[in-house]
Specification:
Elements lengths: L2 H18 L2 H20 L4 H13 L1 E9 L1 E3 L2 E17 L4 E2 L10 E2 L4 E4 L5 H48 L5 H47 L2 E3 L4 E3 L9 E2 L4 E18 L11 E6 L4 E9 L9 E8 L11 E7 L3 E6 L5 E2 L5 E6 L5 E5 L1 E6 L2 E5 L4 E7 L10 E7 L3
Parallel strand pairs: 1-22
Antiparallel strand pairs: 1-21, 2-15, 3-10, 3-14, 4-9, 5-8, 6-7, 8-10, 10-13, 11-12, 11-14, 12-13, 15-20, 16-17, 17-18, 19-20
């Protein structure tokens, strides 16, 4: 029973010895058998055919090569991001008052201008009425001030006439110097009266403006009692409950706009130049929903921590199927590039560990070309780095190296 394992061990040892220490003789023996087989086959062939077959057998390795032609494809910048509402506002009170309106519940749809919280007016209506009364009182003083100004102008005219007469009489010796001086003083007094009347009229107009400003302030205070929706959207929270005391800054409601909606991602600095505002983009949400839109914003400043640039894509959301904060895989279209569609099995590594393919070059000599991966799909991978036309070895590429002569069999690439 132990004889068979012993014989097996001897045969394995002999095989290893021949493969390691007598490799050249073993190969020579194999070539001798191949030559005998070739001689047996060549006996039935013409001399020219035998010579061609012999040369091909000695110098060429059979491979299958794909005649590939580069095609223009769209390459995309792929990001991870999330959805974000186009607008979201916390509507807060601007004055102090008690809520007197029934609350609206979160999830309700509101139009721009819809009432969210109505506050109690209190004494604000009375204050407004008082301000209006003061404004009317100030306006009523305008005719009186204007009449005083006209009276002052008439007195000045009278004083100037008297002054002119007194000066002529004084020059002819018919009036005393005292009368002339008195008429001049009357002129000066009349001029001062005009300035005083003008000042009174300006003060009256200033009173009107102050009363008008007070009325506007009272009206603005009353307008603050009606807190309305700033835009069309959804309530993200309940509005303030009836009876609640609102203070300046107290939250009334949160309104969110989801149509359209934004997709926000961050582009690495190595690919930021491939993204432009207006480029078409698409995304797949975690729910499987696919959406399309365009780039509407690209940050000019990088995040100091991640060295990435924020990008926003605006997409329609008419049916409100997209929610705020959902994760998404975003693809942004960039300039197209020439690439070859090759089987994944055609990719190989050279001695330096560089990814590439082996192609059939001039005189059927194998050449290695490094390639770059653009994207993969079910029927192969798109690669760059090759000439527009290339004969890529797809079968047997692992058994040849650069500089080896091959006997290729060609196949056309599927369009």
């Amino acid at each position: 029973m132990r004889l068979i394992p012993f014989i097996t061990a001897i045969l394995v040892t002999a095989g290893l010895y021949l493969a390691v220490f007598e490799r050249e003789k073993l190969l020579a023996f194999a070539k001798g058998n191949a030559a005998q087989a070739q001689e047996a086959t060549a006996s039935d062939m013409p001399d020219e055919t035998v010579e061609a077959v012999a040369q091909a057998t000695e110098s060429a390795v059979g491979v299958v090569a794909l005649k590939s032609v580069a095609r223009q494809i769209d390459s995309a910048v792929v990001l991870r991001g999330q959805t974000r509402a186009i607008r979201q506002v916390e509507v807060r009170a601007e004055t102090s008052a008690v809520v007197v309106s029934e609350p609206k519940r979160k999830g309700a749809f509101v139009e721009a201008g819809d009432l969210l919280c109505q506050l109690d007016t209190g004494t604000r209506d009375a204050v407004l009425a008082e301000m209006n009364a003061r404004k009317l009182e100030a306006e009523s003083r305008v005719p009186e001030a204007e009449a005083r100004l006209e009276e002052a102008k008439a007195r000045l005219l009278e004083a100037e006439i008297n002054n002119n007469a007194a000066q002529k009489l004084s020059e002819g010796g018919y009036a005393s110097e005292t009368r002339r001086v008195a008429t001049e003083a009357a002129v000066s007094s009349a001029e001062a009266g005009i300035e005083s009347a003008k000042s009174g009229l300006e003060a009256t107009k200033a009173g009107i403006e102050a009363a008008t400003a007070a009325v506007a302030a009272a009206e603005r205070e009353i307008a603050r009692l009606s807190i309305t929706a700033p835009f069309r959207g959804l309530l993200e929270s309940d509005t303030a409950e009836i009876g609640s005391l609102m203070q300046p800054g107290t939250l009334c409601a949160t309104v969110i706009q989801l149509n359209p909606i934004k997709l926000v991602g961050f582009v690495p600095e190595t690919e930021v130049n491939r993204v432009t505002v207006g480029s078409p983009a698409g995304a797949r949400l975690a729910t499987g929903l696919e959406v399309r839109g365009r780039v509407t914003f690209l940050s000019r400043s990088a995040d100091p921590t991640t060295r990435t640039f924020e990008v926003e894509i605006t997409v329609p959301n008419d049916e409100l199927l997209i929610r705020d904060g959902q994760t998404a895989t975003i693809g942004i279209a960039s300039d197209g590039t020439l690439a070859h569609l090759l089987p994944q099995s055609s990719l190989t590594l050279n001695n330096d560990g560089q990814l590439g393919v082996r192609v059939v070059g001039a005189d059927n000599i194998v050449q290695f070309h490094p390639v770059g991966l653009i994207k993969d799909q079910s029927d192969g991978v798109w690669v760059s780095g090759l000439a527009e036309r290339a004969d890529v070895i797809v079968v047997g590429q692992e058994f040849v190296t650069q500089g080896v002569r091959v006997a290729p069999t060609y196949e056309e690439a599927a369009q």
